Amino acid sequence: MSIVFETIGTCTARAVRRVEGYTAVARGLHGRLDADVCVCDQHIDLGVDYVTAAGLTSYICPPNPALAEHPTVCGTATRYTSAAVQ
Q: Distance between CA atoms of 13 and 69, rounded to whole angstroms?
């Protein structure tokens, strides 16, 4: 497994949510976590587009207080496998 960190978009606001990208596993909506994007409330669609472009199932997490403790910029993306995210 490889881990790739990248930034999508140009927003510099503090991220308050995560959009996760999953590869479905037999009979389950959520299977293997392959990517996530931390986003501000105005760029949730950007995160969804990022994970669905790779053919992954997106899940929008509720607001995450932990992101306030560890400030993250909107658009910070992580890929956990070789999923072809463009």
A: 15
